[in-house]
Design brief:
Blueprint: E1 2-3, H1 28-32, H2 35-38, H3 48-51, H4 57-62, H5 72-83, E2 97-102, E3 105-111, H6 120-128, E4 136-141, H7 153-159, E5 164-169, H8 179-186, E6 190-193, H9 197-203, H10 205-213, E7 217-224, E8 230-231, H11 244-251, E9 254-258, E10 281-286, E11 308-313, H12 317-320, E12 327-332, H13 337-346, E13 351-355, H14 364-372, E14 378-383, E15 407-414, E16 417-423
Parallel strand pairs: 1-12, 4-5, 5-6, 7-13, 7-14, 9-10, 9-13, 10-11, 11-12
Antiparallel strand pairs: 2-3, 2-4, 7-8, 14-16, 15-16
The structure holds zinc ion (ZN).
Amino acid sequence: MQITRPPSSIASITPRTSTPVLSLSSNPRRIFNLTSFQNSNHAFKISHKSQSGFSNPVLAAMRSEDGAEVDDAFYMRKSVELAKRAIGCTSPNPMVGCVIVKDGEIVGEGFHPKAGQPHAEVFALRDAGDLAENATAYVSLEPCNHYGRTPPCTEALIKAKVKRVVIGMVDPNPIVFSSGISRLKDAGIDVTVGVEEELCKKMNEGFTHRMLTGKPLLALRYSISVNGCFVDKIGEGALDTGGYYSKLLQEYDAIILSSSFFDKLPSISSKEDTNVSIQPIQIIVASNAQQSPIVASSNTVEESGPKVVLFTAKELVAESETSSSGVETVVLEKINLDSILDYCYQRGLCNVLLDLRGNIKDLEVLLRDGLEQKLLQKVVIEVLPEWNTKDERQVASMEWLESKHLKDLQCKQSGGSVLLEGYF
Ligand SMILES: [Zn+2]
């Protein structure tokens, strides 16, 4: 078992050893599965001949009769589509897609595959080659204007002599914020900002939240029956390919689960077929010895499985030393949501899911913290096609909390269930 020194910003954590906290880049699983990207630039280039262009009837329909006019929103949606090919892989960076359009034809496409790799604009410009000159670049997020691990994309766009840049949303990163737009304008490039802005913002809501607040976006998930009873399960097919739960596991960088899931962790993995098989970090919370089957477990977490991090309270450390191998343990003075989110932030995570299943008494304190301290931003509720006579709610009443009005409540069908999604 590895016990990790928590980040220094977590004041209430007591480190057990001097092992430094792992950064995202030192997570071997997340890196290992991405090596295919590192050796072949072609992995990010999507030939416009086969994927887009005039052979696409939808694109053709977007053009005006003289064939000269193009639809900015259409190409921005295409950029978003490209960006999402790296869903779940880019944290702490945002997902970004870019298409280069010349004379009404897509001549270059690219997306940002992961932190440390070139940005979407670089791949798209490389794909377009000389055709980028006098073309329009559509990019879902404002191009960067600073030297980070890669040179600024503004310079790449200027050097390629693009005529116009269409931007989905301004970069919330304070070191970029609008300076990319200014740099392009100063170079004489025509810049349009805010095309399909809501779509672009929604795609990177976790990145934006992390950038603005210093914490990852936290979403709560649970299931209820049609008569409003809490139900401790997910719907049939939810964890299969295309199921909503499988997709959530793809979208989120970490999932917080009750300790009663410890023996079932390998089964909680996304089945989505993507470029890379990347799974969220599984955070298990053991708040006291009675609630924690982990301390008595002799199981070993599979090396090849998702990364498992156990958060435990200080008084449990003696017992937890006898627990399973392959688990990183973080010891807190007292279990609290703020420290767990700080840990996730330090690891570069943008999106965290708190899943109310199993022995949810383990998670009661996190739920209370989330509501009381306004650390919960989002909720996903599965309404199962069931009428239950028993409410399986195990958490104490929180009637003392002020009632909340959810924003942007939306619903969709998933298998036999209905999903509700809204924001606090
Ligand atoms: Zn860039």
